Amino acid sequence: MKIIGLDVGEKTIGVAVSDAFGWTAQGITTIKWAEGDYDAAFRELDQYMIEHEVGKMVIGLPKNMNGTIGERGEACQHFAAKAEAHYQKPIVMWDERLTTMAAERVLLDADVSRSKRKKVIDKMAAVIILQGYLDSQG
């Protein structure tokens, strides 16, 4: 069973998937969406769920640095509830504090240009979210 990882933002959703053993996360794509248009997001996400035979979802939960849930966190929890109803798969909310910064650092270290970083940052954040979850299951 593969696991899909999502970094849900206001305009984009970064998507990563695990290998069949649940050891490594690979970035797949970035889905553009208008926040709240769940049907459109799920239509695009459906193909990856089927293609990769996904059995579980890990969705990044952006918490404030003090551990509280803010507006973005609530929006991600709402997305997770809609996804759970749509896919009927187990969903894990994963603390994603600083993942976008970590993704930015990885891309900077790899000398990726600013325009290319902007295109892949959400996908890279999804990889970091999913890999963090996979590592915790070790």
From TrEMBL:
Q: Is Cell membrane one of the keywords?
A: no
Which Pfam family, an example, fits this chain? RuvX
Where does the protein end up?
Cytoplasm
Q: Give the matching InterPro entries.
A: RNaseH-like_sf, YqgF, YqgF/RNaseH-like_dom, YqgF/RNaseH-like_dom_sf
Which CDD domains does the UniProt record give?
YqgF
Q: Organism's domain of life?
A: Bacteria
The molecular function GO annotations come to: hydrolase activity, acting on ester bonds; nuclease activity
Q: Which terms are listed as keywords in the entry?
A: Cytoplasm, Hydrolase, Nuclease, Ribosome biogenesis
GO biological process terms held by the UniProt record:
rRNA 5'-end processing
**Which GO terms of the cellular component aspect does the record hold?**
cytosol
HAMAP family, per the entry:
Nuclease_YqgF
Q: Name the job this protein performs.
A: Could be a nuclease involved in processing of the 5'-end of pre-16S rRNA.
Q: What is this protein called?
A: Putative pre-16S rRNA nuclease
| Species name | Pontibacillus litoralis JSM 072002
